[in-house]
Amino acid sequence: xxxxxxxxxxxxxxxxxxxxxxxxxxxxxxxxxxxxxxxxxxxxxxxxxxxxxxxxxxxxxxxxxxxxxxxxxxxxxxxxxxxxxxxxxxxxxxxxxxxxxxxxxxxxxxxxxxxxxxxxxxxxxxxxxxxxxxxxxxxxxxxxxxxxxxxxxxxxxxxxxxxxxxxxxxxxxxxxxxxxxxxxxxxxxxxxxxxxxxxxxxxxxxxxxxxxxxxxxxxxxxxxxxxxxxxxxxxxxxxxxxxxxxxxxxxxxxxxxxxxxxxxxxxxxxxxxxxxxxxxxxxxxxxxxxxxxxxxxxxxxxxxxxxxxxxx
Length: 312
Fold this sequence. Notes:
Layout: H1 16-26, E1 30-35, E2 44-50, E3 55-61, H2 69-82, E4 92-97, E5 104-109, H3 122-138, H4 149-157, H5 172-176, H6 178-186, H7 188-191, E6 196-198, E7 207-209, E8 214-216, E9 223-225, H8 228-240, H9 246-250, H10 261-279, H11 290-309
Antiparallel strand pairs: 1-2, 2-3, 3-5, 4-5, 6-9, 7-8
Helix pairs in contact: 6-10, 8-10, 8-11, 10-11
């Protein structure tokens, strides 16, 4: 199984002034940096240790790696700082921000854990879903001032409306049902409404397992909506990485049992459109494997939607 990954810079590649600022905040010299390679980001991710034994997890990047990514780090810092203690997340310790055009560094508590094994193991997946359900319970009502998830959907996910039936590379099924898919995704912002703080980017590479904890990391896309939305968004990657089919995975979360079918269809359609549309675009700077990962998830999402709606 190939994990999701970007081409990350490493600790030694940070400018001296940035490393100096970090060591100033840590009040000690970094003597060990274990660079982490997972996830779709071109920025640095490293578990570091100072000469006095202090350990933290650092994320750092600048517009040079990706022009939009520093704002994602800023947003993640804002959200992480506001998450309640009972949520299964890594605690933000501090943020260093050079301002527009500069570097952004986030320092989190260091979690001595591992990514879930791939292919997914049933016992680990059950632990993860239980943690997600517990997280949703702790984050309802939403404790952070963030936009409704419908705004994320409208501004970032609606791919079908940007596609034409003759778009190069578009699969036959999508061409045949494009009008239906556009109508479905138009209903998604309202269908996704709710009172829970959603992660909105759950995948195996955003989860750490310890012997007694499941920790959910990477929160820049958080928004408020219905708890089951996170499960719809995660289901294609779970299947792609060796887990159960999307319907079985979705049903593992308690909120799935009370979700209206038409709402699930609408939200699934907009995720399918996001993956499908973006898989046909050029690769973003520093993320050469992203489009293939999106294409595979799009195929799974479309197949799931076709089964739910009986669309051949």
